[in-house]
């Protein structure tokens, strides 16, 4: 920990230890493609449930009820993209709860690695907004596989003092040649490719056509020389925006909210073409070794306490309708949220689940483009 | 190998410690004894290297279909490697970057190894420990440390800006191939110093004295005696660095940026987001074969050169 602290303070001065370890963790998990390493990591507290999630959700603030009940936090393992997580679990990595998003639901269920959720075991389920779990492919035989937790947008976070905005906010900002080498992007095709589709004017309904592939690939190729860094580590993007290394980057809501809280002059754009919208949630592994704790993890995440933290500190929407009661309409609007998620989700472009073949093809192509081909 | 002669040579010695039929069988030939000593290692090598390698080879002839595999053998993946330019280009780039890193490491570490071998006479152990000190921290932390040094608001940029030498931070330092090469050269330094130190240490000092007596100046003496005799160390250091760095994954992932990606990153993506395991297996095998080929050529050439100069 000492070394980590020193490095962290060296790096930014204002960087908190939690954030630095968070970024280390994300990277570390990336290295540890061998399931053994993560198994060792989760062996710390054998009897706690394991939550396999995006970097940034592995924090005590989201597990207050869980900790009250069990005295300890669950074990965490983090990933940078949900495709990576799915492949890892298909490779035999067993966790209790994982954290996919709406576009992955049918494929995650088809992998046969998950079990339907018995909603009667979740005390907060009656407050969960039905719009969020009535998603395409989620309800099988009357039972949901995914318990929705967070929802939000993928859009552009930009420095209001460094980015000279011409006209309206738009996806063109990330294709602005004036800022060559000072733009950033998320690395996973699950976000970037879809944003490219919005930019290229491709309707999501037609995203699985050769013409769509061609158009989006052309847009991504045009953007590639402008991009300083593609990464799934949001901390890296946030630091680059804070230092002025980047003037605009594709991010989720949380980056803008976090940076604003640190006093960095940023805005989370509301592009005129519409942002990319998504819902993510929790699925239970079919062989979850601690099934009771798995339900406790989900219940804790769905609680109002967690919801308030998600809205206030990360700027994400929460699935529990009661979480919004603590905020007035003005605050929510400032965060780009609403008590009625459908308003927000329908205003943007909502991802449509695709086949595994499409995902493989898209990711392979996007990797080639990122590498400069 | 020569089991017969070993047995006859052994017959006169006192009764071997191994008793029972199995013990006697094992004692009978030198080869069997050697094998039985090796067996734990062999077993681990078999389970840990040969079996996964076999799986990789078999898998490279499969085809990915959705979540499953089509197991009918095909060379489509290898054809794919030839057809799509990304694979060859990334492989070439990886080989180039790791050659650069290897050359940089060996050149920078040779003087250090030389110094410790020839000019330190007391407390050599402490010097060796000092040299390996950076390796007491994790590899990941060392990579992050370089991110701090090379970064936009990093040590180098802030120093140059404070001195007024530059107005805006130098952006090419981080997220570039050079960042990866620099980091690799530092991170693998101990693996270069130690073998070169050992072979320099072994050089008979009287040879150097003889060369001086016979009229060689320091430069000629170094080129004719020290360098050829330390070649085994240089070769093993080069291979020790070249082989693992070609497939390195974490350094380019953190410091490489879009232009600094290496083949290891692509292999990881094949097993991750792209979800095409057979293609990942194919790439791994091609990478291994290229490294093996280059290592062989390298060894052949250095052997040839060594024979010529000695």
Can you tell me about this structure?
The complex is a heterodimer of chains A (373) and B (310). With 373 residues, chain A is of the alpha/beta class. Chain A folds into two domains: 2-151 and 279-349, D-Maltodextrin-Binding Protein, domain 2; 154-276 and 354-370, D-Maltodextrin-Binding Protein, domain 2 (3-Layer(aba) Sandwich), CATH 3.40.190.10. Chain A is built from 16 helices and 14 strands. Chain A has helices at 2-12, 17-31, 35-42, 64-70, 82-90, 105-110, 130-133, 189-200, 210-223, 234-243, 253-261, 291-302, 304-314, 329-334, 341-347, 356-370; strands at residues 50-54, 75-79, 97-98, 114-115, 139-140, 143-144, 147-159, 183-186, 227-231, 248-252, 266-268, 276-285, 317-318, 349-350. In chain A, strands 1, 2, 3, 4, 7, 8, 9, 10, 11, 12, 13 and 14 form a twelve-stranded mixed β-sheet that branches. Chain A has a two-stranded antiparallel sheet with strand order 5-6. In chain A, strand 5 and strand 6 (143-144) form a beta hairpin. Chain B has 310 residues and is mostly helical. Chain B folds into two domains: 3-59, no CATH class; 86-309, MetI-like (MetI-like fold). Chain B has helices spanning 3-10, 20-28, 30-59, 76-83, 85-119, 124-132, 139-150, 155-162, 177-187, 189-201, 205-213, 218-246, 250-256, 263-271, 277-309; strands at residues 63-65, 68-70. In chain B, strands 1-2 form a two-stranded antiparallel sheet. Chain B is globular. The relative contact order of chain B is 0.11. Classes of the chains: A alpha/beta (373), B mainly alpha (310). Chain A binds chain B through residues 3-4, 7, 10-12, 24, 27-28, 30-31, 33, 81, 83-84, 86-88, 90-91, 107, 110-111, 181, 188-189, 224, 227-230, 240, 243-245, 355-357, 359-360, 363-364, 367-368, 370-373, and chain B through 64-67, 84-86, 89-90, 137, 140-141, 144-145, 148, 151-153, 169, 171, 175, 249-250, 253-254, 257-259, 261, 266, 268-269, 271-276. Chain B: Keywords: Cell membrane, Membrane, Transmembrane, Transmembrane helix, Transport. Chain B: The chain crosses the membrane at residues 37-62, 95-118, 125-145, 179-200, 221-243, 285-305.
């Amino acid at each position: 920990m000492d070394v980590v602290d020193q490095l962290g303070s060296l790096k930014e001065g204002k960087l908190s230890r939690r954030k630095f370890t968070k970024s280390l963790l994300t990277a570390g998990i990336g290295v540890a493609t061998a399931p053994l390493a993560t198994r060792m990591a989760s062996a710390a507290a054998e009897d706690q449930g394991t939550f396999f999630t995006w970097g940034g959700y592995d924090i005590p603030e989201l597990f207050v009820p869980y900790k009250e009940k069990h005295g300890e936090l669950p074990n965490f393992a983090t990933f940078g993209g949900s495709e990576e997580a799915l492949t890892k679990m298909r490779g035999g990595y067993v966790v209790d709860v994982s954290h996919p998003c709406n576009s992955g639901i049918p494929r995650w269920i088809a992998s046969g690695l998950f079990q339907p959720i018995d909603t009667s075991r979740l005390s907060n389920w009656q407050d969960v907004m039905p719009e969020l779990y009535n998603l395409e492919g989620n309800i099988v035989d009357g039972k949901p596989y995914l318990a929705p937790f967070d929802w939000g947008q993928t859009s552009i976070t930009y420095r209001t003092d460094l980015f000279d905005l011409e006209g309206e906010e738009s996806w063109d900002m990330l294709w602005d040649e004036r800022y060559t080498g000072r733009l950033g992007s998320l690395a996973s095709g699950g976000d970037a490719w879809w944003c490219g589709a919005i930019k290229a004017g491709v309707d999501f309904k037609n995203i699985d056509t050769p013409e769509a592939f061609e158009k989006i690939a052309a847009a991504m190729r045009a953007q590639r020389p402008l991009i300083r860094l593609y990464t799934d580590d949001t901390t890296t993007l946030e630091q680059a925006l804070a230092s002025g290394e980047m003037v605009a980057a594709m991010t989720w809501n949380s980056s803008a909210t976090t940076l604003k809280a640190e006093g960095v002059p940023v805005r989370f754009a509301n592009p005129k073409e519409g942002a990319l919208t998504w819902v993510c949630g929790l699925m239970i592994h079919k062989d979850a070794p601690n099934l009771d704790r798995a339900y406790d993890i989900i219940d804790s995440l769905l609680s109002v306490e967690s919801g308030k933290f998600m809205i206030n500190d990360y700027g994400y929407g929460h699935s529990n309708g009661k979480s919004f009661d603590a905020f007035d309409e003005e605050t929510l609007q400032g965060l780009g949220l609403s008590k009625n998620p459908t308003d927000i989700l329908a205003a943007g472009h909502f991802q449509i689940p695709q086949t595994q073949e499409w995902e493989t093809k898209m990711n392979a192509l996007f990797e080639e483009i990122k590498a400069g081909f | 190998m020569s089991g017969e002669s070993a047995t006859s040579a052994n017959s006169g010695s006192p009764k071997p410690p191994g008793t029972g039929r199995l013990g006697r069988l094992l004692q009978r030939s030198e080869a069997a004894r050697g094998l039985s000593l090796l067996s734990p290692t062999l077993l681990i090598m078999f389970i840990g290297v040969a079996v996964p390698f076999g799986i990789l080879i078999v898998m490279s002839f499969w085809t990915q279909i959705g979540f499953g595999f089509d197991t009918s053998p095909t060379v489509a993946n290898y054809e794919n490697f030839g057809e799509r330019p990304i694979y060859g280009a990334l492989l070439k780039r990886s080989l180039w970057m790791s050659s650069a890193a290897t050359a940089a490491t060996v050149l920078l570490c040779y003087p250090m190894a030389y110094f410790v071998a020839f000019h330190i006479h007391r407390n050599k152990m402490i010097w060796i420990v000092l040299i390996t000190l950076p390796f007491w921290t994790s590899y990941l932390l060392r990579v992050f440390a370089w991110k701090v040094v090379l970064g936009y608001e990093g040590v180098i940029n802030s120093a140059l800006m404070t001195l007024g030498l530059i107005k805006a931070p130098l952006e090419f330092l981080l997220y570039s191939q050079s960042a990866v090469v620099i980091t690799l050269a530092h991170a693998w330094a101990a693996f270069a110093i130690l073998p070169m130190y050992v072979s320099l240490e072994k050089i008979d000092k009287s040879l150097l004295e003889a060369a001086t007596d016979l009229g060689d100046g320091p430069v000629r003496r170094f080129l004719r005696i020290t360098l050829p005799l330390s070649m085994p160390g240089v070769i093993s250091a080069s291979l020790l660095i070249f082989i693992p760095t070609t497939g390195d994954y974490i350094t380019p992932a953190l410091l490489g940026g879009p232009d600094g990606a290496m083949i290891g990153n692509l292999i990881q993506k094949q097993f991750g987001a792209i979800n095409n395991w057979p293609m990942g297996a194919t790439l791994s095998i091609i990478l291994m074969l290229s490294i093996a080929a280059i290592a062989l050529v390298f060894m052949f050439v250095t052997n040839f050169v060594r024979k010529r100069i000695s």
